[in-house]
């Protein structure tokens, strides 16, 4: 690409609903700006329609040099070129975009179903500038790295965007590079033909003909195998469940479902299928083409099918089951992420801002299921491991927080506002009674509440106090949004690899892990994955768990994006002898916002099999090179120490490992430390800049289960 030349193009029908006049007017303004500069700017219109003549004349009147015109033509002369190519065959349009254009401009400010020309341009690796109306928002939104969405639907707004993209050739290249895999991943490949679209519609309609019958049959096919089907013939499902005969019990419920179909029965069937796989008691994810994996997929589909027209608590339970089962089955990360996001919104909705919040009681969302056991008794099954809220139901909320946590939220809202993020309409409506309509105003409310709470707090980082102690109308916006989903950024999976570990690196990592129970991998994440995972954890308001100088965010509370789940699966594939098929137990992020250098996590042990810990914060924010790293002791806790003590009683843990070998790993962006979860580990002192964007953030993935109390034998090389 010639960096001294930029060619912008409009692709589409020249009709009023496509707003092509905006493109012509913006082109004239951009052309005038570069008329006496070395940068060669030109424009092209690919398409025809009833506005062809007035558009050619408008371009001429605005000082553009019209070429290829039917009504006006100036093949030579001064002025920025505006070439009218006319109607082209679809294949010729793709070729023209690929070979002739640098940027495709979608100037429609009205309604748009999808805009195929945008998708085709992005598939060709071209930067796209759009107003993001209608269906365009399905694949391109404001702030995305694979295109530009103009906020203001005007000539001025479009002109400003075109000037920015014209000035920065490297940005244009990155936009195109990000766009191609994003769009190809969205559509399953480069084939964006009408034939492929017709096949997809045919498959969709065939699945809609009688989905309930097909799903019921799938459930019976996976559950009623051999002796399990025979047992279901002879006994009540409840009696089978009492004996932990989960396959046979699921078979019986699947057979009953057609005549007793309701959301609770579907929830029960999903639970039984999940229990039958023993996924929560096994260390590994089921292999492809196994009964267990099919059961997880069927269980997720059964849960999905029960979602419409049910109560809030039942919908939450079914959503949680679908999210968990798809994550455990692997292979459908974006579908799983969609359910995790829906669950997050059910668990953490912004409340209506009013004085009634002082008496707000968390709803009881247990959504239990019950089953007769065949002998006059009733069995009870829990809905899921995840409730819609982690608060105690049916009693007024304490609205507890530390001043440090409130200050962090204030800084986050201010940061979002500074980057152009706006409150979602539903959040604006909820906060309108308290006259809060922007992120800046919400940040002010939190900063004020933090100061009020600090005045009565013993320690701003550890002393959680109820906001009831500083009750006033000024605190109401905080009550409505505390620990709730004000803003969420959920990047989708990539078409390309997110984890970049080659065979040589994997072999060295495996050798290190076998020798000293840990390994260090630099540059493990692709640039795209690193950028968007960090953006997710910087922007999303998911930091609810206040600890000593740091905050925690977890899988079920807004971090289970398609991209994160892709990373989870790829670490297993890239490190087959360390992670391999071990199932994901939990994922979390920790953000260190404390004021003191020693405010990190103290010595503790976890109950997984393997932990992958990746650092996301750029090194330029680290004031002392390598500070904020990780210390790992080559020892676990005593067999007699309960897990909660191992995870929280740092003094007892530290005393136990004070003479053990240890490894100190310096902090570095995009460095991942992989270690046995049961090994005692702690955060080293950190010295980072004191600004919101500079907070030290780590992303941790814990795989598998283990007998965490069994001490690992120290290796002679453990201190290497």
Give structural notes.
This protein is of the alpha/beta class. The model is unreliable at 185-191, 385-391 and 708-720 (pLDDT under 50). It has 24 helices and 21 strands. The radius of gyration is 29 Å and the shape is globular. 40% of the residues lie in helices and 14% in strands. The protein starts with a strand and ends in a 15-residue tail after the last strand.
Summary tags:
seven-stranded antiparallel beta sheet; globular; 720 residues; 40% helix; alpha/beta; single chain; 24 helices; 14% strand; seven-stranded parallel beta sheet
Task: Describe this structure in a few short sentences.
It is built from 24 helices and 21 strands.
Q: What multimeric state do the chains show?
A: single chain
State the low-pLDDT regions, or none.
Answer: 185-191, 385-391, 708-720
Rg on CA atoms, Å: 29 Å
Share of β-strand residues: 5-15%
């Amino acid at each position: 690409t010639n960096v001294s030349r930029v060619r912008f193009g409009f692709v589409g029908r020249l009709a009023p609903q496509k707003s092509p006049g905006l493109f012509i007017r913006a082109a004239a303004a951009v052309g005038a700006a570069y008329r006496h500069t070395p940068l060669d700017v030109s424009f092209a219109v690919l398409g025809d329609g009833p506005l062809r003549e007035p558009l050619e004349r408008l371009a001429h009147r605005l000082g553009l040099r019209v070429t290829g015109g039917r009504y006006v033509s100036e093949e030579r002369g001064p002025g920025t070129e505006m070439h009218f190519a006319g109607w082209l065959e679809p294949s010729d349009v793709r070729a023209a975009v690929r070979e002739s254009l640098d940027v495709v401009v979608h100037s429609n400010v009205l309604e748009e179903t999808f805009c195929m020309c945008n998708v085709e341009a992005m598939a060709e690796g071209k930067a796209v500038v759009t107003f993001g109306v209608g269906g365009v928002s399905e694949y391109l939104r404001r702030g995305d790295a694979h295109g530009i969405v103009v906020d203001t639907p005007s000539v001025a707004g479009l002109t400003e965007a075109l000037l920015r993209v014209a000035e920065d050739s490297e940005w244009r290249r990155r936009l195109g590079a990000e766009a191609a895999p994003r769009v190809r991943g969205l559509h399953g490949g480069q084939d964006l033909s009408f034939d492929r679209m017709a096949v997809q519609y045919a498959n969709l309609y065939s699945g809609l003909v009688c989905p309930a019958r097909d799903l019921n049959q799938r459930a019976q096919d996976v559950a009623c195998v051999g002796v399990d089907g025979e047992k279901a013939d002879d006994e009540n499902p409840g009696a089978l469940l009492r004996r932990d005969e989960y396959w046979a019990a699921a078979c019986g419920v699947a057979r009953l479902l057609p005549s007793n179909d309701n959301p609770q029965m579907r929830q029960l069937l999903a639970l039984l299928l999940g229990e039958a796989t023993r996924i929560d008691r096994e260390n590994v994810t089921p292999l492809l083409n196994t009964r267990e994996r099919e059961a997880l997929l069927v269980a997720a589909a059964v849960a999905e099918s029960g979602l419409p027209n049910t109560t809030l608590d039942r919908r939450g339970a079914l959503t949680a089951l679908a999210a968990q089962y798809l994550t455990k089955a692997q292979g459908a990360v974006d579908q799983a992420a969609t359910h995790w996001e829906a669950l997050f919104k059910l668990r953490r909705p912004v409340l209506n801002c009013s004085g009634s919040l002082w008496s707000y009681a968390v709803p009881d969302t247990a959504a239990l299921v019950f089953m007769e056991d065949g002998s006059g008794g009733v069995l009870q099954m829990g809905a899921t491991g995840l409730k819609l809220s982690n608060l105690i139901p049916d009693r007024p909320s304490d609205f507890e927080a530390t001043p440090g946590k409130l200050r962090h939220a204030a800084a986050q809202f201010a940061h979002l506002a500074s980057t152009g993020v706006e409150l979602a309409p539903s959040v604006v409506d909820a906060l309108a009674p308290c006259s809060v309509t922007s992120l800046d105003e919400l940040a002010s409310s939190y900063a004020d509440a933090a100061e009020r709470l600090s005045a009565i707090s013993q320690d701003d980082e550890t002393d959680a106090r109820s906001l009831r102690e500083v009750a006033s109308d000024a605190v109401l916006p905080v009550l409505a949004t505390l620990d709730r989903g004000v803003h969420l950024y959920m990047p989708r999976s990539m078409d390309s690899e997110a984890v970049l570990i080659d065979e040589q690196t994997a072999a060295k990592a495996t050798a290190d892990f076998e020798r000293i129970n840990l390994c260090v991998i630099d540059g493990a994440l692709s640039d795209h994955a690193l950028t968007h995972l960090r953006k997710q954890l910087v922007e999303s308001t998911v930091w609810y768990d206040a600890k000593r100088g740091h905050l925690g965010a977890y899988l079920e509370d807004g971090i289970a994006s398609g991209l994160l789940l892709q990373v989870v699966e790829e670490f297993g594939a890239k490190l087959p002898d360390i992670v391999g098929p071990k199932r994901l137990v939990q994922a979390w992020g920790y953000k260190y916002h404390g004021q003191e250098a020693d405010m990190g996590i103290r010595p503790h042990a976890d109950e997984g099999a393997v932990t992958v810990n990746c650092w996301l914060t750029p090194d330029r924010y680290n004031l002392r090179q390598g500070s904020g790293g990780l210390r790992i002791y080559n020892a676990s806790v005593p067999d007699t120490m309960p897990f909660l003590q191992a995870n929280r009683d740092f003094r007892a843990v530290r005393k136990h490992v004070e003479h053990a070998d240890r490894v100190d790993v310096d902090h570095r962006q995009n460095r991942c430390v992989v270690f046995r979860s049961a090994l005692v580990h702690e955060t080293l002192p950190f010295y980072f800049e004191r600004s919101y964007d500079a907070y030290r953030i780590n992303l941790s993935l814990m795989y598998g289960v283990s007998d965490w109390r069994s001490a690992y034998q120290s290796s002679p090389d453990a201190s290497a």
